[in-house]
């Protein structure tokens, strides 16, 4: 019997039209999207027909991508596919909280809307960018980051680490990498995320989710692996609040997360939402894993049929 993990993508995988197919064909998805639209009017229009620049703004990206991610998971569960573990990359971790029952789904959506605003404000206060660095020795890259005053933040998979920081410092790092013949790719994000520049956003999110009049926090029904620790979430309320809040200003230990999931017996990974970035990370981290992606009705039906076999 396969042990299944749902994985939820983070910023950078967004595109106009994401989630529309599932919205039009899955009743439960439509109902949740319509509820989300009452919380944040205009979200569906941004998702289905927003411009690239509009969707790149963090305050828009996060609620839109949250819905696209969770739509695939809702459709999977509705089709009889249940996860044994869950993990989300950056904002995807808030989706994971909603799917695990740590937060009600609509509360998780409200939280990600606040998270997007807080991170946008932090990004506006300190212009920054992020690049994925390919096939460079980890220790050498970390030393280079220290030299240029930037931060290695997302440990994605063997041979890929994302670096984040101030724009001018990142530009100087790019020059140094080019001189060394190291390949890098700029990411479609709008700020120096997962760095100390996000500390104010972390504190704001901690205050937000700690408001007992707004949020009810529960023990996860399904284990949620945290970006910050690469281990399942704690089962106490304060630990949960600290974990999701501090994630914003700390590194994402994704490679370690995947390895820990595999060690716990997970052999099937389903990326829920747009793109196949996380699927690529799994392929390079967990040899022999079963890897699927669900982003629309066709891919949903295909995955459900495959798993039935």
From TrEMBL:
**Highest classification ranks of the organism:** Bacteria, Bacillati, Bacillota, Clostridia, Lachnospirales
Q: One GO MF term, please?
A: [acyl-carrier-protein] S-malonyltransferase activity
Protein species of origin: Butyrivibrio hungatei
Q: Which Pfam families does the UniProt record give? A: Acyl_transf_1 (PF00698)
Catalytic activity reads: holo-[ACP] + malonyl-CoA = malonyl-[ACP] + CoA
Tell me yes or no: is Acyltransferase among this UniProt entry's keywords.
yes
**Entry EC number(s):** 2.3.1.39
Name the protein family: Belongs to the fabD family.
Q: Which GO terms describe its biological process?
A: fatty acid biosynthetic process
Keyword Transferase annotated: yes
What name goes with this protein? Malonyl CoA-acyl carrier protein transacylase
Catalytic residues at: 90, 194
Gene Ontology, cellular component aspect:
cytosol
Domain annotation Malonyl-CoA:ACP transacylase (MAT): ranges: 7-303
Provide the alphabetized UniProt keywords: Acyltransferase, Transferase
């Amino acid at each position: 019997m396969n042990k299944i993990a749902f994985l939820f993508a983070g910023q950078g995988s967004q595109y106009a039209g994401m989630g529309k197919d599932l919205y039009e064909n899955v009743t439960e998805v439509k109902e949740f999207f319509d509820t989300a639209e009452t919380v944040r009017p205009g979200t569906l229009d941004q998702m289905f027909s927003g411009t690239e620049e509009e969707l790149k703004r963090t305050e828009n990206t996060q609620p839109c991508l949250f819905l696209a991610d969770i739509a695939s998971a809702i459709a999977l569960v509705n089709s009889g596919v249940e996860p044994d573990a869950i993990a989300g990359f950056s904002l995807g971790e808030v989706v994971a909280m909603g799917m695990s029952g740590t937060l009600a789904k609509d509360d998780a959506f409200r939280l990600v809307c606040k998270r997007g605003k807080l991170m946008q404000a932090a990004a506006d206060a300190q212009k920054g960018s992020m690049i994925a660095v390919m096939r460079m020795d980890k220790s050498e890259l970390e030393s280079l980051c220290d030299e240029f005053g930037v931060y290695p933040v997302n440990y994605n998979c063997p041979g890929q680490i994302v670096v984040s920081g101030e724009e001018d410092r990142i530009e100087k790092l790019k020059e140094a990498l080019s001189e060394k013949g190291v390949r890098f790719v700029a990411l479609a994000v709008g700020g120096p995320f997962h760095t100390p520049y996000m500390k104010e956003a972390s504190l704001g999110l901690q205050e937000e989710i700690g408001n007992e009049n707004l949020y009810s926090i529960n023990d996860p029904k399904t284990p949620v692996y945290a970006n910050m620790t690469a281990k399942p979430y704690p089962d106490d309320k304060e630990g949960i609040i600290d974990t999701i809040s501090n994630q914003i200003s700390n590194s994402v230990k994704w490679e370690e997360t995947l390895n820990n999931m595999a060690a716990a017996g997970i052999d099937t990974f389903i990326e829920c939402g747009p793109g196949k970035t996380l699927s690529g990370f799994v392929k390079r981290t967990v040899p022999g894993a079963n890897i699927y992606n669900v982003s629309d009705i066709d891919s949903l039906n295909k995955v459900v049929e495959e798993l039935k076999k």
